[in-house]
Each structure stands twice: as structure tokens, then as C-alpha cells.
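Here is one chain, start to finish.
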Amino acid sequence: QKLLTRGAGAAAGAGFGPLNLGALLAGDAKLAEFRAGNAQRIQIPVAQSLRTICRSILTNQGASGVSPATEYPSIPELVIGGVRGFAQRRLAVLEALPVLAVSSAIAEVPQLVSDSDGAAVQWPEGAAKAETTLTFDGKQLRSATIATYVNVSKQLLSDSPLLGEFLRVVLLYSVSKKLENLIVSGTGDSTDQIAGFTEVGNAYVSAASHPADRIAEAIAYMAGIGYMADLIVLNPTAYVDLIAQKDSYGRYLGGGWNAPMPNTIWGVKVVSSVALSTSQCLIIDTQQCTILDREQAQLSFGYTGNQFSDNLCTVLMELRAQLAVYDARAVQVLTMPVDSPG
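Its structure:
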């Protein structure tokens, strides 16, 4: 109150006239509700108080290097163009897979285990028709919660207009990247909760010595059993090694360094992901795989513990999802040779 009433003799136009904060609080209806126990939290705006008290309550360090700052903070010019100093890899695997919204934490996924494929011609007329026997294995997939948070001072949220957007971009990317990593190579154990392609896929064994030949064999094998491969996943290093192969004379087998980066191998779309090791390759029929979306990513702000009194808040980003692979044969996991012949 003493601070707010200082400068009573200042010129009326200077904006530093006396302010009776006690009278303002005593007459506030929301404070009366709070005292009566009808409200757990209130906010009371103090009109015309910012210029009066800003020199003494700012806690951000200013140019003087001390806190509280001893000068008025300057208003910086915002650089347009998005978040700076933050690299994001393309989450190409997430982009390539179909997504199904689910309304339950547990999804029942029936998987065909065996099929006798007994269709045959009936002969002669009146003879018993051929029977097909099917066996299924019902799997229950529980949505995994992927989340991360950061604690931020309330002052910083107010002082930095771009901070909220920066946190949204960074935290959203963090949880999305973790989801893609798990979809590609999650173990399905208590830590990962998601069994990824390398865990549930079929290990394809090839006698070919060149990685391109192994990929061709796996594509042909899938076509022979009724699956249409439409996605190849390689580690970026393995991808470059594959297209940069040379013969014994040092000549590129492909287009070479001046050719456009191929987006297909044997006519099948190829993407790269560091979530996959350099020694593996995935051949996938994406029609047999689905990301189960229980809750889309959402950003939340809230208080925990003593944060309200400490002027801190928690910024939380989380999503809930799971991977459903309807048939393991729709995902072929290849081992890539370390040294391919020239």
C-alpha cells in the first residue's frame, strides 16, 4: 500500500497517482465470495497499477543483470517464421500409416492363425463339399499413454508471447517422435507398452547377398501369399548406402550423387527413420496395419504441489495410441548385409 501511494504529488498526467488497494479489495464481490468459502480461486484485476509497480515486482533479469531488474524492460521485436533452434526429423512412418479413432482403452483385434484354404470343386453332384477350417487368436491391445511436461514460471508465460507456441511445437514433436519410435521398434514390454514392427513382424531370411535383392525377394514373397507391399522403411544411413553402391571399378550402380533421391525401391514407396537400426529393413503392407488413436495429442496447463504459490505452472503434452498389426506376415523384417558385393 505504501508503494502504491508513493508519488501522490506527481502530476496528474504522469500516471503515478495514489491507488487505494485496500479499498479496492474491501469492495470486491469476488473476494467476498472467497471469504465465504464459495470460491477456491479468484483473480482481481488492479486497474492502472502496472506502471506504478512494475519497477519493483519484475523478476525477469534485465540488461543490468540483476533480479529484480532495475530498469523498464524493452519490448523485443518478434522474428516471424516459426520456432528457432529446434530441428525436427520428418516422422514419415506416422504419415504413411492409416489411423483409426477408437473410443475404448482396450481394442480387441482378431488375428487369423490358420486357414486350411479348402475350397474345391464339388464332384459328382450330391457329394460332400470341401470344408475350410479357420482358427483365430484374439489379441487385446491397450492404449499406451505417451507424455512429457515442463515447468514454467507464470511470469515467463506472460512475458514471452511466443513461448506457448514454442512449447506446443517442441512437446508435440517429442511425444509424436516417441510414438513413431515405438511403432517401428517398440518391444511391447512394460516400459514400451507398444509392440512395434520389428517385434511383431515376420523375420524374412534371404540367401541374397545384396540388400536390393533381399528387398526384391521379400516383396515377391509377400505378393505370393496375398499381400501387397506398399511401404519400405530403412535407416537413413542404410538407405544412402544402398543407393550409393559401386561396382568393382568405383562406378555407381544407381544414378550416382547427381541423380535425384529415389522415393521408391522396386516400385514400392521408401521412407527413412532413425528409429530403425542400420542392420534392418521393413517391408510393409499398410492395409494390414493401423494406428489406434485413443486420444489425440493435447496441451494442458495446470498447477501441482506448491506451484500456485510459487508462480509456476506445469505444461503437459500427452497422447494415447497403440499399433495394431492384423497379420504378422504383412510386415517382413529383413537383415541388411554389412558389406555388399560391388
